Amino acid sequence: MIERHDVERILADPASLVPEADAAAARPADRFRARASRFVNGEVHAARRRRLEEFLATLDVDALAHAAATRASALAHAGADSVAVQVPVACLAEQLGFAGPDATPALVAVLAGHYPTGGPSDRADAALVRLLAAAPPPGRREHRDDAVLRVQLLVQACAATAALITAALRHPGAADDAVPTLELLERVLRETPPVPTTRRIGPDGGELVLHLGGPDRGASPAGPRILAFGAGARSCPAPAPALAIAAAVVDGLRAC
Ligand code: HEM
Fold it and tell me: What's the CA gap between 196 and 190, in Å, rounded?
């Protein structure tokens, strides 16, 4: 396994490329992968990433945390796994202007299951069509791909934020009132990153699997470095909203 030290170096290297989605794909969910930022390289990635950052800059992180706490308390009876899947996506969908935000988490979960690898899926195609229809209509200065990028934000948020919430609640520190929720989240990010692996093209043209939670020969006294949000120009652009939502949900459920 490649150590975190080297994983960080590879991720930060501008020459490292991601495996690309098929730009000629015929099916909607596969075309979605090719129109998002995650599976393209070079200037196309940079331009889409800039647009994503513009959308993220419109988010009010305090309001997201407040909405997440309110929704988590209203849904607590459904259990932690359900709260973890539904609350982050519904809160983000609301702030990003989606119609019917409470209907989005189930659709996003289907599309998120398809997203890492692609492939034929009628369910993913149908979920995408409904999510694009719920995205806010383009304003005068908006590009037609803006709806795709807004849906991408929900898809990227879905599994990772849910995994952080559930792992934090299952962590031995969760039962200890002396461990603040932010510290609990940090322990999970360091020990068992919610996105365990990512991929890059290696020097021989083959795919490298990079473990974000592997051993670290350069660990500090605090422990191995945190690579849970990646590193370099493709690192997660949304750690602040992710942590604000996760902290609000975990705080609420720890108090139950
Ligand atoms: C705890 C929650 C989260 C974790 C651990 C996480 C982790 C990651 C990681 C590791 C990557 C980089 C993958 C790579 O380099 O190959 C990534 C990318 C990304 N994440 Fe997150 N993420 C989280 C939540 C979110 C949220 C809430 C959003 C949106 C609001 C988001 C949006 C994105 C986007 C758009 C990318 C792709 C960036 C690009 O293509 O340049 N993430 N995330």
Answer: 11
How far, in Å, from the CA of 45 to the mean position of ligand 1? 14
Do residues 93 and 68 lie in contact, with contact meaning Cβ atoms separated by under 8 Å? no
User: End-to-end alpha-carbon separation of the chain, Å?
Assistant: 40
How many domains are contained in the chain?
1
Q: Tell me whether residue 212 is in a domain.
A: no
202 in any annotated domain: no
SS3 220: strand
Q: What is the pLDDT of residues 90-139, one digit of tens each?
A: 999 999 999 999 999 999 999 999 999 999 999 999 999 999 999 998 77
CA-to-CA separations, 135 to 10, 80, 158, 176, 214, in angstroms, rounded: 35, 27, 16, 41, 38
For residue 125, tell me if it sits in a domain: yes
pTM of structure: 0.97
Residue 198 lies in a domain: no
Report residue 167 CA to chain centroid gap: 15
Domain range for residue 177?
A: 25-190+237-255
Question: Which residues surround ligand 1 with Cβ inside 6 Å?
Answer: 11, 37-38, 49, 52, 92, 152-153, 156-157, 160-161, 164, 194-195, 198, 228-230, 234-238, 241-242, 246
Half-sphere exposure (Cβ direction) of 221: Cα atoms closer than 13 Å: 0
**Tokens 């979960």 belong to which residue?**
109
Write the CATH number for 241: 1.10.630.10
